[in-house]
Design goal:
single chain, Rossmann fold, eight-stranded mixed sheet, 8 strands
Amino acid sequence: MDNPAVTLEAISHSSHESHIKNLLAEKEELLFHIKNQDSVAHMLTVDPFRIIDVFFKTKNSWLTVGDYNGLEANYILTRGQEKVVASDISDAILKEAKEEHLIPEYSKENVEHISFKDNSFDYVLCKEAYHHFPRAYLGLYEMIRVSKKGTILLSEPIDILSKVPLLLLLKNIADAINPQLINKIWKNRFSFESVGNYVFKVSEREIEKLAMGIGLRCIAFKGHNIFKTHVKIEGMNDTPHNKKLYKKLTKKLHFRNFFSQIGLIPYDCLCSIIFKEMPEEKTLEELEKKGFKIVRLPKNPYLT
């Protein structure tokens, strides 16, 4: 950066806003998955929501973050929730979604400075967007601030170092020789996306430390794999959907899930739930049935 007054985060925010504005030319395709909910593409996109469906059993208010085309807000709305506001750093596509009555409400928001007051929504949902944030923790603190019950990070890439002990061992050995040596083995150690952001991957330990630091009492995690819906596959946009194609694609995902469940390969993604208030035991029991690991955090003994 030649101009020291221009920060890296400002460049990142501007880059993402411009990227979404440039997608206006593809708005029909971007809104297709919302309008045509009987397509394979839509079904694969919303499949990850099934692991958090416990939160749709009662009426809650929601803010979606990084929801550039309103898909998450639309899905939540179809689950009978009382209030849903879609937000993103650019409202270019959200305006179109609102005009086509796909979402009821939207707000242009920079996640580092969310305009809503404390506890404005029961839940804040961030799906496949957290890893784009240039200052991820700052964004997470803001999401927690405006939530009353909790914040959910859904389908975020896992920091593989936290799940593959052998890789950590190799890194420790390599670091003793040369800190750059591990890069020859760990090819995507430093991952960047074409829009300009560093891919901020998550780990259970990092979320745990963040929650403990601000005195929260409960968090939950579940690893899962997702199908890359941006891959162009013939028949994905057909309506009514091609059942044979859907079964074929999900079968591959089920195989990967099986190998992840038995520990042979790590999950692609992590769902992290950061409870701001202690949930009911019934909610925790239902999450455990879904395969979530519930972590009850201790009180700070030095603060009352």
